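Action item from last week, closing it out:
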Amino acid sequence: MPFGSEGVEAGLGLALSGGGFRATLFHIGTCWRLIELGILPQLTRVSSVSGGSVFAGVLASQWTDVAKDPTPKSYQDLVVAPLRAFCRMQIDTLSIGEGLLSPLKSASDEVAEKYSQFLFRGSLNQLVDAPAFVFNATNLQTGRSFRFSKPYMGDYRIGLIRNPTLSLAQVVAASSAFPPFLSPVILDHPGHFEAVEGADLNGRPEYTDRIFLSDGGVYDNLGLETVWNRYQTVLVSDAGAPFGLDGTVATDWVKQTLRALDVATDQARALRKRALIDDFQRGARSGTYWGIDTRIANYQLPDAMPCVDQNVQPLAALRTRLNPFDDTEQEQLINWGYALCDAAIRKHAPQIVKTQAKPTWPCPGHPLG
C-alpha cells in the first residue's frame, strides 16, 4: 500500500526500538511475555529499528515455526538461543577494522556478512505475509524513513520497489547502520521505483540509482511511525537510552557530532512518545508503552514483578553497542523487558490478553527483585 493511502484500521502493531544489543536482549524479554499472554500470534505488523531489527529479523525468519508452536520452549529454541549466542560476539569494532583493511568491503558489508553467517539467511520475499515485518532505515538523501518489507521497499519521496529480493542480512545491516562507523549501507541500482502519492523525487536518478542508508534510529528510534499511523492498537517496546546529562563536552569533531546526534535523537523520540501517550489518554489509540528507564512502580500494579531500582536503573545506561554482553547483562535485560511488558500490558491493555499466565522470571538465575 502506498504511504499516502495509509489510514488507521483495526489491527495490532508492535514497535521495537533501537539500542544495539541492549535493545535486542530487552525485546527478547518483551516478546517472551507476549507469547505467554497469547498476544504474539495476534500481531498484525512488527516495526523495528536497529537493535530491534536484529531481534525482528530472527523472529521473522522463524515465524512459521514459532506460530505452529507459540510456546516459551519453542521461542527459546528458535529465537532466543541464536540471538543470545550472537550477542556474545564482537561485531561492531571487528567489522569496522575489517572494513578499513579491505579495499572491496565496507564496515556495513562486514556486518551484513556476520548477520548472514550467524543469524538469518534468505530474503525479504521469503518472509511470511502476516504479520507484516517492517524494517526501518534512514535515507540520507531524502531525510526520510526508508522501509523494507515483503511487499515493498522505499520511501514516499522516491517511491516504492515492489516485491524486493534483498537479503534479510543486508536489510538488517541497513536498519542498524549506526553513524558514522557502520554507515552508510549503499544500494547500487536497486531497481525500478514506482511513483506513489507525494513521490516528488521519483524518476530522478541522483536519488534512485544509488541509495545511501543509515540507522533507522536517526529518523525514528522508536520504530513507531509505521504502526502508529496504521493501527488502532499499538504496543511500543523502547530500549532507547535516556538522554545523559554531561557537565563536560568534548571538543573533537567526532565526539561533538555524536553528542549532537544524541540531542537530536532524544528530542525526536520525546516528541513521538508524548504524542503517542496523548493518543492513549484521549482514547484515539489503545495499547501501551514501556521503556527501559521506566520505574515499574509507576504502573501502580500491586502484583507487578519485584524489581529493585538499584538493580534495574543501571540497565538503561548499558552501552548501545554490537559487542559482547555477558550472561549477567543478557539475563537482566531479558528479565527487565519481560517485567515491564507484563506490567504495561496488564495495566493498560488487558483486553488483548488471551492467556492468564502467571509471570515468572524467564532467566531465574538473575531476578531483579
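Closing note: Confidence is low (pLDDT under 50) at residues 1-5.
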